[in-house]
Write a structure and sequence with these properties.
With about 160 residues, the protein is α/β, with parallel strands linked by helices. It contains 5 helices and 5 strands.
Length: about 160
């Protein structure tokens, strides 16, 4: 299985990089992982709705340029479906059985994802209605992807 994480913004914090490196190492037993970091656009303090839309579109175009036609795209979106860890594992297993073994998970910048990225997505997933920093969310997503493989392989993992 191939998993691509497409994210807007660069990781700067060493402790988050260390966590991502740890989950990437753990995931190497189960899948080929690629993490693509895209440049985030600076949002002015008092940006208008039009300016914010333009920023989301620019980031969205960068995201879309990295998505291959063969990818099953999961957009991380506040309006997406919320799943338990077991449901998430069954979802990924089902996609693999359907031939979707090349999955891309997309995390937008501070303004979220553009409409074009949402439209391209094959599935919209929401971890919580709460807002998280996208750098921290990367760690959370990788942890859940790792947990998915442990569940799917009937391997122990703390609850």
């Amino acid at each position: 299985m191939n998993i691509t994480l497409i994210t807007v913004g660069k990781l700067k914090e060493k402790y988050l990089k260390a966590a991502i490196d740890e989950y990437a190492k753990r995931l190497s037993r189960y899948c080929k992982l690629e993490i693509i970091e895209l440049q985030d656009e600076k949002t002015p303090e008092n940006a208008s709705e039009k300016e914010e839309l333009a920023i989301k579109e620019k980031e969205g175009n960068a995201i879309l340029s990295r998505i291959k036609d063969s990818m099953f795209v999961v957009a991380m979106d506040l309006n997406g479906k919320q799943l338990t860890s077991v449901e998430f594992s069954k979802f990924i297993e089902k996609q693999c059985l359907m031939g979707n073994s090349n999955m891309a998970f997309v995390i937008g910048g501070s303004l979220g994802l553009s409409e074009d990225v949402i439209k391209r997505a094959d599935y919209k997933l929401c971890f919580s209605k709460m807002t998280f920093p996208h750098q921290l969310f990367r760690v959370m997503l990788l942890e859940q992807i790792y947990r998915n493989f442990r569940i799917a392989n009937n391997e122990p993992y703390h609850k």
